[in-house]
Write a structure and sequence with these properties.
about 290 residues; alpha/beta; eight-stranded parallel beta sheet; about 40% helix; globular
Length: about 290
Amino acid sequence: MPRATGPLAHALARGPVLLDGGLSNQLADQGCDLSGDLWTGRVLAEHPDRVEAAHTAYVRAGAEVLITASYQVGDDPVLLERSVRVADSAARAAGHEVWVAASVGPYGAVLADGSEYRGRYGLGGAELAAFHRPRIEALLAAGPDVLALETVPDADEARALLRVLAGTGARAWLSYTVAGGRTRAGQPLAEAFALAADAPEVIAVGVNCCDPADVLPALEAAASVTAKPLLAYPNDGSVWDAGTRTWHAPADPAPWPVEAWRAAGARLIGGCCRIGPPWIAGLRSALHRPPPV
C-alpha cells in the first residue's frame, strides 16, 4: 500500500501529526549493540531487519511519521539509502498513513563526542555545506517524504543546511536542540528560527532532543517570527554524557503540557531519545488519534 496519500505539509494544515520516538532506546530494548561511533547506524549496517522492527514498534503505537536511522551515518551512500528503504518497508506495512522522514543529523553527531549538544565546531558555513550536501543528495535520491534536519545546535549550521536545500524543491523540517531559551551554541531562538521563515523548502520548525520544559518557550519564540507549523519531540529530560556514553535521568521529570504546545502552534509532536512506543501510544491518545489498525 502507499505509505501516505499526500504531502506531509497538507496533513499538517489539517491538524496534528504524531511522530515516532527514540530509535536508539527501542533498538537497545530489542537487545541491539549500539557501541561504536555509528550508534544506531551500526544496527542499520549489520542488522537492518532489527531497525525495521523498531520502526514497526512505533507504527503499532500509532506513529504517523518514521524518522530514519541515518542520523549518525555520515556520508555512506549505501547506509543512507538503506535507512530510507527500511523505514519505507515498515511504513508500507502499516494500516494507517505513515510518512518517512530522512534524518539529517548535525555535523557534531558524526564526531560521536557530544558536540551536537554544543555546536561551534570551528568550521565555516562553506565547510558545513560541503559536509551536508552529499548526505542530503543521497537521502533525497532514496525518496523520503521529507528531510528531518534535526538536533541542530547552531544557527550557523542551520544556515548552511538551508543553503544546501535552496532551490532543490525538497521538503524538510528544521529542528534545533535548545537549552535555557537559546540554541545550544547560545544564539537567541527567535533569530535562529527566523532563518527558515522565508525558506519554501521548510514545512515546519521547532525543537527536539531537549528538556520538555524548554519546549514551550522555544515554540513561542518560533511563532513570533514565522507562521509555519511548529514541531516538538523532546527527550525525557535526561542529559547525555559523551564520555561515558550514558544518559543521566532527571530526578523530577518535567510534565509534557501537550495542549499548551498545540495552542502555541505545534503540529508535529513526538519524542526523541529515551521516549519509547508506550509513550508514543499515550501521545496518540492525548492528540485524540484513533488506535492503529
